[in-house]
Design goal:
Keywords: Hydrolase. This is Nitrilase. By secondary structure, the protein is of the alpha/beta class. The protein is built from 6 helices and 16 strands. The protein is globular, with a radius of gyration of 17 Å.
């Protein structure tokens, strides 16, 4: 779909920012338009934000749209759109049925450019917090089932990709394990609250990039949602030296694009070998 593909040494990637609504169908239609836009602009890998298919009025809304692993309208949409656009799509997150009827797995699924699913990672750190000096509080464990503790890294035409989701950003030991498995790109689809995003979003995303000498693609939810929750936006693509290569500047649906040098992480890790200088493992 694109007339402007980068050279083989450069991978063009996209972070898809969304203001997701309280029903699945309009969110999928919006995601489709944004993914097509990313493909038209030459992206080969696109990352959707956490809860891209549904930000419901109630936390239990996700239970009514939960899908069986490998089958359902959201997963079918992703496979079909990946094949249609020629994009690799990292779609975070999809509500996948768990053994408990009142909880679902928050699954980040990755599809290659033929529409085949090549990975699934279930969020392991659940956002059970009360925000300081605020009545704002969240308990994801009430409706989410955490995944296993196994870090997930996959091969792709753009290098090895590590998978993470939102609140994972606050746990650097996970990212160290992703880097130890060779991750050169790390995706972090998110739905950061406005309060925590204002305080910590840029710091956390850039820190995970710097300390692991990896590109971090972090699409975020943005704006007000059906529940009254407000998310921070400012979707980011950060390079392995910590530089912000692209950032969303609105609270609306937006595609941000960056060209990443596929050899940069390896060059930095060779010349600035902080990953191999660690003495605490």
């Amino acid at each position: 779909m694109s007339a402007d593909r980068p050279t083989p040494e450069i991978a063009r990637v996209a972070a898809i920012q969304m203001n997701s609504l309280g029903e699945v169908d309009p969110n999928l239609a919006r995601a489709h338009d944004l993914l097509r836009d990313a493909a038209r602009r030459g992206a080969r890998l696109a990352v959707l934000p956490e809860n891209f298919a549904l930000m419901g009025a109630h936390e239990t809304d996700k239970l009514r749209v939960a899908e069986t692993d490998g089958d359902g309208p959201i997963q079918d949409f992703l496979a079909r759109t990946a094949a249609e656009t020629g994009l690799w799509i990292a779609a975070g997150t999809i509500p996948i049925a768990s053994p408990e009827a009142d909880r679902v797995y928050p699954a980040l699924c990755v599809y290659d450019d033929t529409g085949a699913r090549v990975a699934r990672y279930d969020k392991i750190h659940l956002f059970d917090v009360g925000l300081p000096d605020s009545a704002e509080a969240y308990r994801e464990s009430a409706t989410f089932m955490p995944g296993s503790n196994a870090p997930t890294v996959i091969d792709s035409p753009f290098g090895r990709i590590g998978l993470s989701i939102c609140y994972d950003l606050r746990f650097p030991e996970l990212y160290r394990q992703l880097a130890a498995q060779g991750a050169e790109i790390i995706v972090a689809p998110s739905a950061f609250t406005y309060t925590t995003g204002t305080a910590h979003w840029h710091i956390l995303v850039r820190a995970r990039a710097v300390e692991n000498l990896a590109t971090v693609i972090a699409p975020n939810q943005a704006g007000h949602h059906a529940s009254g929750r407000r998310t921070y936006g400012h979707s980011l693509i950060c390079g392995p030296w910590g530089q912000v290569q692209a950032e969303a500047r609105s609270e609306a649906n937006e595609v941000v694009i960056a060209d990443i040098d596929r050899t940069r992480a390896a060059q930095l890790r060779e010349g600035f070998p902080c990953l191999t200088h660690r003495r605490l493992d």
